[in-house]
Every structure is written in C-alpha cells, then in structure tokens.
Amino acid sequence: MWTQSAFGRLDPLFGSWKTPSKQKKNFNLPQPKVANTDLTRLLKSDEIRKVLRAPNKRVIRATRKLNPLTNN
Length: 72
Known about the structure:
The chain is an all-alpha fold.
C-alpha cells in the first residue's frame, strides 16, 4: 500500500522537525510534548515526588445513620 516513492514525497510536503516544509508555506511538524517516553522513570524521579502529595492510607468507612425515633 505504501510505496517508496510515497514515503519520499512526505519530507518535501510536510518537512521534518529540523527543516520546514518546501511545498506548504510556514508549516513545521508539531513538537512532541513528552520527548522521554520512560514514564516509570519520570514518575519515580525526585523532582516529581517532592511535588506530589502523600497518599491517603487511612480508610474512612461511612456509618449507617439510624433513625432515633424508630430504632431502640
């Protein structure tokens, strides 16, 4: 379905992150928001762990509200 000539036409049409497009005026590829995809290493980093709040370990269970007029 995708031929080598079709892939060859993509760079002049859309450009790359370093070079703008030759056929489209003022078009650059959008930059990815996250360049590093290693999320486990990112989430375990000291900079992020300092900002996050501590986990709530205490479990609060709801008590059943009884009607004092009908319940002894």
